[in-house]
Amino acid sequence: MVLNLLFITTVIKSTFGVVTTGLWLIPLMLAAITYYRYDAVDPESRPLDQLNLYPEYDFIVVGSGSAGAVVANRLSEVRKWKVLLIEAGPDENEISDVPSLAAYLQLSKLDWGYKTEPSTKACLGMQNNRCNWPRGRVLGGSSVLNYMLYVRGNRNDYDHWASLGNPGWDYDHVLHYFKKSEDNRNPYLANNKYHGRGGLLTVQESPWHSPLVAAFVEAGTQLGYDNRDINGAKQAGFMIAQGTIRRGSRCSTAKAFLRPIRSRKNFHLSMNSHVTRIIIEPGTMRAQAVEFVKHGKVYRIAARREVILSAGAINTPQLMMLSGLGPRKHLEKHGIRVLQDLPVGENMQDHVGMGGLTFLVDKPVAIVQDRFNPTAVTFQYVLRERGPMTTLGGVEGLAFVHTPYSNRSLDWPDIQFHMAPASINSDNGARVKKVLGLKESVYQEVYHPIANKDSWTIMPLLLRPRSRGSVKLRSANPFHYPLINANYFDDPLDAKTLVEGAKIAIRVAEAQVFKQFGSRLWRKPLPNCKQHKFLSDAYLECHVRTISMTIYHPCGTAKMGPAWDPEAVVDPRLRVYGVRGLRVIDASIMPTISSGNTNAPVIMIAEKGADLIKEDWLTNPEYKVKRQANRVRDPEPAGSNIQGIVTLPRSNSSNISDRSNMESHFSNSSHISNINFSSSNSSNIDSISSNFTLNYADS
After folding, report:
1. What span is annotated as the signal peptide, if there is one (predicted)?
2. Residues 87, 69: contact at Cβ < 8 Å?
3. Active site residues
4. pLDDT tens digits, residue range 610-632?
5. Is residue 138 annotated as involved in ligand binding?
6. Average pLDDT in the chain
7. Which of 346, 351, 379, 634 is the most buried (most CB within 10 A)?
8. Cβ–Cβ contacts within 10 Å for residue 331, how many?
């Protein structure tokens, strides 16, 4: 056990960079014991990072997140198909297994660490007016960083997709794929026609609840909303949250879909592999190969049948544009050869929420970090798979409500509530404010006075935003982070709808059932909103624009649509328009955002996308492998299964600054014409490669 403790200390330091005083004890002890019991309780071992790659696979899947892990699993079910899954990050660690420690993973080395561009309409309470946008850079992707909430969306979402010209995407068709992946272990949902049993993804309630969540559900009934399964026949209502957890621990898509197939002989996984572009033959417009950097070498691996982009709504459009697929003017601006003029990176949508709405209580019923005994909490989690460490990132209750802007007759609510038995103040400023990127002045004036006091929150979030953002390239360097313009509240009605949602949230908190706890709103105004009357519409809108929070649901940047839709990037079978052998299967393809947390819908998209591929290649006679037409032009180096090797110089420093040494190492690459060094000091640039740019010769 002592050795395990020492090992986990290293894990935490390598993951989070530092071990902070006071807070380190819980995750340290917890992770140590979790590691100690790991092999005894989990029947699947971790996937292997394949070092000896084939020069060619039938399918190459880029990204192992909520979609990519599912696609790789389902395609490798066909034994004659060789499947390669490429992931930019490492494997999960013991910390990521613990549901309540989700916040510790954000801003860690498992997170891409994206930020939105500065805004004058939103994120005004965040540092430099920029919202943090966590995205998983780890096996399992954002299903490792998220709060594990299992929400499918609304029937009308998918019927709307179909009405836009996407046959087969209506609710009656996609319900099958939701159920296919699901293993719902909530007894009250047994024999329910809307839920599945025996799938690979475990879904259940957290085994631990605070008394506040029962009051939250009861308050909903007092307002006229039913206590219902929001993933069932109707959505409007209140419920205790369901999540993707198994035996009290996170059930990521890596755990659910990749660990069971680690021994398949036709499946390879390459971790710590940063994809730089898809190689497309200009003459045939076929995706031929994938190029990526791993351990200082550039690999070029061919795809006999297809390349599937499942890198998420940020990285997928970035990779497409780097490969010559995107808006013509934008690509030409960065000197990228345009292979197909497509609206890649447009149509971006996200669920934006109003954070910081805090209610104080007089009884010790909330989660206050300093109250919990680390030893007792740890052993309760490890030995009994229960206790506060099993909470879904702290979120206990969900609700879907109608504002005056929605049509109640359609059962298509426009606001979702996340209820948590804690708020920004509950950890004394140790982690939550950092994850949010909250300005220190805002925290000190509003939340520091109630630090470590019992409190709870309701976060209203906008389900169907009218505003649209975008993802664009910062440069042609594949290691430079893209420009993310969330464009929150560009349509003023979005802010007004959230204001109405906040009013309903306050009515919920004022329900009679909360009187037993002495619940009341913390009435300290935000410093930049003091000019407005507290709780007036103008004040609430100022609050909405100040503590604007992403709910981590970016989507729509490679829109699915029929050929006549000028905004469409992929067709209803998820094939990229104008390019053969290339599909997008992830949140990018959503024409409009689903009404609720997006992890379950993305898994559904992956299940359906994999079936579309199987239908095409196993039953459609037009899909035939043309071996010679799909070969990469560059010859394979003698004695190697890697095409186009480039070895980066090794250094103890994360910065590579020796220009001559770098150029000599890149001189053997037939597809890289020269190296341009950049002096950019942008904090959004990966430090490993912030000082050089690869310029590729034509394929």
Report:
1. none
2. no
3. 553
4. 999 999 999 988 887 764 444 44
5. yes
6. 86
7. 351
8. 24
